[in-house]
Specification:
heterodimer; A: alpha+beta; nine-stranded mixed beta sheet; disordered N terminus; B: alpha/beta; eight-stranded mixed beta sheet; membrane (chain A); EC 1.14.15.45 (chain A); oxidoreductase (chain A); 4-hydroxy-3-all-trans-polyprenylbenzoate oxygenase activity (chain A); ubiquinone (chain A)
Chain lengths: 504, 285
């Protein structure tokens, strides 16, 4: 809401689809069927159309985590689930060679996500592969005016997060679902169109196949000609979600004028801390991966991104070290204005926790993977649910990677949705019912929007080089470093323990 | 004394009609005859055998559900009404909002009483339940999804038609038996059920005591009985609860229903001053 009010320009372009006629109240002689395939009822191959309780469109990390979560709960494990994704890895499996250096595509999963993975029984499949916990984090910027060091012991925890390659996450979820006693069928195909029947008026007798068209179900048409019915269609198909488009959900958002360069690098010794330095063009993050490897996520403007991608490896390593060390500005010292900490007037009673002094990140020795470039944007679906449809993960929201939160929001969605489905089954409700799906939306939307607003705020705050603002930001660093309750709250929120950034 | 009670109930129910935000719920029942009144007229004959082809929705107790023909103009007309009744954002929204909370109470009390596994998706498998005053089937359908063999009865034929159409959409709920009849008639037919549920009905009944007697007669020994009502005033509380508790001595567990207008949610609470639901069991004689 406040995002829309403050930033009126939507550079990303709102995709306005045909009006979404939710519920059964729509009148009209034609029956007002929500058919999003440009009016043509496609033929289905085969004689009978299979019916599923839930069709998960998108078998990525978030979609599979929903499937695993449903398989792990007694109330939902009897459900019949279809997973629609044309990625052959879902059928053939994902082979991971432990000797390979890490993939540049990684995710930082919060402790809250880790415990959810343990709850659904997927963590055990992840443990044999490379993954790195980190218990420290340092955040500073180019002005040299301040820094913050976070430590897991500030919140009495063992770690702040864990960095895992996406293919490891996907593989462990796939193994989890394969080994679960759960009715599922993988459709190696793409969703082309959906019919979301409005209700009783369109109930038809199909004389040809002698099958009564189910008026209370969604009908999906896939690219290979198969059709299926489902009570609930879950859109887990990423930021360019087909489900979101077909169901007519409007989105709000804009593109950041930034791209992210992503790669794996190697050090001379183990890196055990997460580092993030805000530079004038965008932040550079160095995330520990284990085995002396780290992952780089470097946000910058598109031209620089292209330059950095195409320059030689040696030059790239030099610029990375430069950016993490003396480049663009001096190292911060522990006090803001030279002598006399600005916060000394808080008094001796306030417990401070500066965890040691500022440290320089470990030097990068060589590049260990290809460099990938991604455009960054913010996008949020105005609604997450309507009758028979729910969106989770990037399909519902895309965020800036600067705090490593994106996929954690998606996992949070998946686990919340599976819980809501379980509660619905407990009271015998139809799982495609909009009012019940709204419960999931009411739970996740505020939390996701709050996170997006904060990340967007950071992104905007750090893209301006202006003296007074620099000092304000530095004051923010100092506050976060030295005021324990604030620091605890920040860590708690970023770890996923706290749902909203409130001081409760 | 009984006539004074009756007099007060009639006065209260006359005042209750059309006077509250929950009037859509009432409206469905307000047009109905009070359950203990004169037998319904011939057009809505409750006889189980279907009489004449015009009334396609009468339901034989033994037969499976009747699929209606597409050409029937009645189907179209009732489909439209059913859509509105079942639209959870439509005129019956308060009822739809309240439903999950009622079901949670029923599920927990019945599972506990009958020793069923509460984490099962179909805990009522094998149980026979009757929903007295079923309306459009808002309670009957979830009960069927929870595995029960459900019979839904309502004195208003329109409601039964709506319920039948909607239940036939899903194979799981199409097994529900709907009859346009009264609790008293079921007693005469000597029907027995493991659980008898009557929600938001007793406040419309002319003689709550007699109504409770009928409900009790429908319950097997050691069966369960669940009644809920809107407590509009101390008098409503008095009439309904006095009838149930002190005359029949069966209430074991009572919970209040509280509505939070900010969140739009109903929840169970100890506050019985607005709306409450009560569960009891019938002791074997």
């Amino acid at each position: 809401m406040f995002i829309r009010k403050s930033f009126a320009v939507n550079l990303g372009g709102i995709r306005v689809r045909s009006r979404c006629l939710c519920g059964a109240a729509a009148a009209g002689p034609s029956g007002s069927i929500r058919q999003s395939n440009h009016g043509q009822e496609q033929q289905c191959s085969g004689t009978s159309i299979a019916q599923y309780d839930i069709a998960i469109v998108g078998g990525g990390m978030v979609g599979m985590s929903l499937a695993c979560s449903l398989a792990s709960m007694p109330l939902t494990k009897h459900l019949n689930v279809a997973i629609i994704d044309s990625n052959p890895a879902l059928v053939n499996g994902i082979r991971i060679n432990k000797q390979d250096p890490p993939d540049p595509r990684v995710s930082t999963i919060t402790p809250a996500t880790t415990s959810m993975f343990r709850d659904i029984g997927a963590w055990q499949y992840l443990q044999p592969y490379r993954h790195a916990y980190f218990d420290q984090m340092q955040v500073w910027d180019y002005t040299g005016l301040g820094y913050t060091r976070y430590h897991a012991r500030d919140v009495d925890k063992d770690s702040l997060g864990c960095v895992v390659e996406n293919k490891v996450l996907q593989s462990s979820l796939l193994l989890c679902i394969q080994n679960a006693d759960f009715q599922k069928r993988i459709f190696p195909s793409r969703l082309v169109s959906m019919s979301l029947n409005p209700g009783l008026k369109s109930k038809q007798m199909d004389g040809i196949s002698s099958e009564i068209s189910r008026a209370d179900l969604a009908k999906l048409h896939l690219s290979d000609g198969t059709c299926l019915y489902a009570k609930l269609v879950v859109g887990a198909d990423g930021s360019k979600s087909q489900v979101r488009e077909l169901a007519g959900f409007k989105t709000t958002g804009w593109n950041y004028s930034q791209n992210a360069v992503i790669c794996t690098v190697e050090h001379a010794s183990e890196n055990q801390c997460a580092w993030q330095r805000f530079l004038p063009a965008g932040p550079i993050a160095l995330l520990p991966m284990g085995d002396n490897f780290s992952n780089i996520v470097w946000t910058m403007n598109p031209k620089e991104a292209l330059d950095r991608k195409s320059m030689t490896e040696i030059d790239f390593v030099k610029t990375v070290n430069h950016a993490l060390d003396h480049g663009f500005g001096p190292h911060p010292t522990s006090s803001l204005l030279g002598k006399g900490n600005i916060f000394s007037w808080f008094g001796a009673g306030v417990p401070t926790s500066g965890n040691g002094g500022f440290e320089i990140p470990p030097k990068v020795v060589k590049l260990a993977s290809e460099r990938m470039v991604f455009p960054l944007s913010l996008r949020h679906a105005n609604d997450y649910v309507s009758k028979h449809v729910a969106l989770i993960g990037d399909a519902a929201h895309t965020v800036h990677p600067l705090a490593g939160q994106g996929v954690n929001l998606g996992f949070g969605d998946a686990f919340a949705l599976s819980r809501v489905i379980g509660e619905a089954i407990a009271v015998g409700m139809d799982i495609g019912e909009a009012s019940l799906l709204k419960k999931y939306e009411a739970e996740r939307k505020p939390a996701n929007i709050a996170m997006m607003a904060i990340l967007d705020g950071f992104q905007k705050a750090y893209s301006v080089d202006f003296g007074p603002l620099n000092i304000l930001r530095a004051a923010g660093f100092h506050a976060a470093n030295y005021i324990s309750p604030l620091k605890r709250s920040i860590i708690s929120y970023a770890s996923g323990e706290q749902r909203l950034p409130l001081f409760t | 004394m009984a006539s004074k009670l009756l007099h007060r109930v009639r006065a209260v129910s006359a005042r209750l009609k059309y006077s509250r935000t929950l009037s859509p719920t009432l409206a469905a029942f307000a047009s109905s005859r009070l359950l203990s009144d004169v037998a319904p007229s011939a057009s809505t004959s409750p006889a189980p055998q279907s009489s004449g082809s015009s009334d396609k929705f009468e339901h034989n107790a033994k037969s499976s559900s009747v699929r209606s023909s597409l050409k029937d103009p009645e189907l179209a007309k009732f489909s439209a009404i059913a859509d509105t009744w079942w639209d959870s954002g439509g005129p019956f929204k308060p009822l739809h909002l309240m439903n999950p909370t009622r079901l949670a109470f029923i599920r927990s009390t019945l599972c506990r009483h009958f020793g069923k596994d509460p984490s099962s998706a179909r805990p009522f498998e094998g149980m026979k339940i009757v929903d007295v005053g079923c309306g459009g089937g808002i309670l009957s359908e979830p009960l069927a999804r929870m595995g029960a063999s459900v019979t839904g009865v309502d004195a208003v034929d329109k409601n039964i038609k709506i319920a039948r159409i909607h239940a036939d959409l899903d194979p799981v709920t199409s097994t529900i038996e709907y009859c346009c009849t009264t609790a008293e008639k079921l007693v005469e037919e000597q029907r027995k059920f493991d659980a008898v549920i009557s929600l938001e009905v007793i406040e419309h009944v002319a003689d709550p005591a007699e109504f409770c007697q009928s409900l009790s007669a429908l319950t097997i020994p050691e069966g369960a009985l669940v009644i809920s009502t809107i407590n509009r005033s101390m008098r409503a509380y008095a009439t309904a609860i006095v009838a149930a508790e002190y005359l029949l001595h069966w209430v074991k567990e009572m919970a209040g229903f509280v509505y939070n207008p900010l969140t739009g949610r109903w929840s169970l609470s100890d506050d019985v001053s607005v709306n409450f639901i009560a569960f009891g069991t019938k002791n074997s004689q």
